[in-house]
Predict the 3D structure of the following.
Amino acid sequence: MKKFLVLGVLAVVVSTTLGSAALAVLAGPLEDYIGVVGGGSQPIGPTFTVDIDVFTDEQTFCAYQHVLSFDPTKVQVDSVTLQESGSFPAYFCSSSIDNVAGTVTSTCARLGCGPGAFSGTDQVDMHCIAPGGSALVLVPASTIMRDNLNQPIPISRYDGSVTCQQPPTPTPPPGVGGTVELHGGASTPSAQQSDSTVPPYAALAGLGAAAAMAALAGGWYARRRWVR
C-alpha cells in the first residue's frame, strides 16, 4: 500500500514538473522588436504622428538605432520626439531628419549599459504634400539593437505605410428653385406731362389771344371813361 502511495506522489510531481517545463518552452522569451505603428489614410496638409515602438527583454541591452525611410515626394517629416523608458531611464538620444533623401535617423544609448529590459516609443510627426502612397520602412542594416559588449541583439522589424488623400471639395449649398423675372414697368405719363407735349406754336397762339382780349378790354374801359 505504501509502495503504491509513493509511486502516486512521484507521478504527480513528475507530471507537474514536466507540465511547467512544457509551458515554459511554449511561452518562450518575449520578442525583441522595433516596429512602425500608425500611418493609414491621411489628408494632405495636417500633421499626423507615426509611432516607432522599441522593446527588448534582453538584460544586457545597451543601445538601439532605427532609420525610417519614406517617399519625400509624398510626405515630409516635421519633428521627432524620443520617449524612452525602462529600468534605467538615463539615456543619451539624438535624431536627424533628411526630407530630401527621405530618412529619419534616431539613436538612443543607455548610459552605463546596466542590466535591465527596455521599452519605449519614438514619435515622428509628418504631413502629406501630394496624393499617393508612401511605404514607411525601417532600413534593416541600420535598424539595430546592441548589448553591453556592442554585439547585435537579434530583433524583428515591422514596417508601415501611409496613403495621402486630397481633401474632398466642399459641395456648395443648393440654390433656390424657380425663375425670378424682373420687368421694367413703363410709367403712365400724367395729365400734366401730356400737356407738355402740346406743340410750341399752340401755346404761342393761346398767349396771343390772351393779349388781344386784354387790349380790347382796355379800349372799352378807356371809351367808357371818355364818354363820362
Q: What stands out?
A: The radius of gyration is 50 Å.
